[in-house]
# Entry
Amino acid sequence: MHPDSWQLTDDLDGFLARVGGFLRSRPAAHTVPLTVTDTLRRRGLHYYGRDAPLFGTLAADDGTVAAALVHTPPYGLCLTPVTARQADALADRLADLGRRPAEVSAERESAAAFARAWQRRAGVRAGVRMRQRLYRLDGLIPPAPVPDGRPRVAGPADRELLVRWFEEFADAVGEGPVRDGGAWADARLSYGGVTLWEAADGTPLAMAGATREIAGQVRVAPVYTPAGLRRRGYAGAVTAEVSRAARDAGAAEVLLFTDLANPTSNGLYQRLGYRGVADFTVWAFAG
# Structure
C-alpha cells in the first residue's frame, strides 16, 4: 500500500464531510474521534493546543472510507481500526511529513500495528502507557445503598472547583499540565456537562462529566473523587446520575473508558450495568 493512500488535511469541515458517515456508522467504536471533532467544531481548532490538528482518511478500493485519524497535538494520534499494511502506509506518510506523534490510541490490535510500524519508520522506542476497556451501558443498576448527598449540575459558580479537580484528574491519569483546565471547564459549563455529588450542606464530594450527544452516543468522562473522599460510594452515585440523565435525554448509547490497571473502577462500572465493548491501548513513543 502506498503512503499517499492516506489523505491528510487540516481542513476540519472537509474532513467531516468526507468521513462523517463512516464515523457515525460505528458510534461506540468511534466515540473519541466523534467527540473530539465535535469539540473542535464548537470550540475552535486550537482548543486542545496551539498546533493545528491533522485529520486523515484512507479510501477503500470502492472509494468509501476505510479508516480515519485525528491528531490534536500535544495529544497523541487517535486512529480507527487499521490493518498492518494500512498502519505501515500511515507511518510512512506521517514520517514523510515530519509529524512526530507522542502517542497512539486505538483498538488494541490497531494500536499495536501502528506502534510497530512507527518504531520501524521513525526509529523510536515504543511502550504501552495504558490499557483501556470501552464499556457500554446495558441496563442501569443504581448503587445500593445510595450514599448520603444529592446530585447537582455544576454551574458557573463551580468553575474554580472544576478547574482544580480536572487538573488533579489529568495529573492522575498521566495527562499532566498539557490540559488547560480552564478551557475544559468553560466548554463543559456551556452545556451542563458536569454533575457534582454534594453533601447536604452543599459541599462537593465528587464529579462526573459527560460529552455532548453526537451520533446517538454520550461518553461519561471524567469521573473524579478527591483522594480523601474515596471509597464512600460518591463516584458510583454521580456516575449513575450522569448515565441516567444521558439516557433520559435520548442517548442511544452511553459509554465510558476505564483503565484496566484499576480493578476498582472496572468493578464499579460493571455493577452499575456497563458491559465491555472493546479493548484499547495507548502506546507512547520516545527517542
